[in-house]
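Researcher: Go.
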Amino acid sequence: MNSRHWVACWGNATSITDRKESVYAKDITLRYPIRMCFDGNKIRLRFSNLTGTEDVTLTRVFVALKNKEDYEPVPVLFSAKESVTIAPGKEIESDEVEINITAGDTIDVSIYLGGFTQMNAGTLITGPLSKGQYSYGDFATQATLPLDLTRNTNWFYFLNTIDILTDEKNHALVCYGDSITAQSWPDYLALRAWNEGYRNVSIIRRAVSGTRILRQYDCITYAAYGLKGATRFPIEMNVSGATAVIIQHGINDIIHPVGTDVNPFRPWSDMPTLEDMIHGTEDIYVSHARKLGLKVYSGTLLPIYGWRTYNEERDAFREKFNEWLRTSPVFDACIDFDKAVLDPQHPAAFAPGFDSGDHLHPSEKAYEAMANAVPEELLK
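Model: Structure:
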């Protein structure tokens, strides 16, 4: 019999959700369809209240194989109990759940929140594999959510990681970053790996929009821009079966500062030097990843020509940092995402068709190009 171990087959970051008028939910069902990339007969789920300031109670949680003839929800228990309360700043792991998974299956993870619940722990992700729904009421065990009480969402609350007990050959590749990584390229990388026959690797996304390596915002206007690298990285690298991490992070450190005369929360004192960025990457990211025994791959920063805070000085900074990412021996290799999406005739800008329209985030076509830029050796 093949030896088996726990490997993360799906993962997301947990950060501070956008501070809107409504910050609580009650009597609501969250449902997240999760594509499973490995065979296995047991899973365990991690839930996070990392950025909450109050207890969060998950009233009931179920998993069910989607698109099967019989929709049979299996309860997820916590120390043999169906309900669990997560203290602020904490994460909890479920009991092992016995469920027969075949690679390629999709499972529904349904969370029912019965009482008033602070919705302060989660993050926004997008991509072809990243869809969720919520319904008013308790429908956690129903195969189909009621159309008139249900809406789609890309906010993933509380659900942080799913591990599966699977063959020893299977492993996880972590994609770490900001909004570029919170959007579609990790999903396209997962689909590419599957379609090209690399069936022993999972793609684990650890990304939060707006985040910086060296700073974080402590105001409700920008709280959703997330935790700084030194806080995020050690927590987010808790990934069972991980063998490598791709780090594509740092553009927000460069583009955010504008001066307090323009924005009181974005002083020029936040602007790092190149040395600050290099030392931050080495000391916060590379050193910790090495302690975990991970291979570390740098990812270059993408074009910003036309972005609202673009200027030649910022772009020169980005190019210098990219050159260090390409050449520094502290990494196992560099994935040149910048080269994959730039316009050869105008390297500071995206190639035609590769700009989402805001001159900072790629188009879906460009995200596919980023996924294709990842070397095969990381997927094997």
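Model: The radius of gyration is 21 Å.
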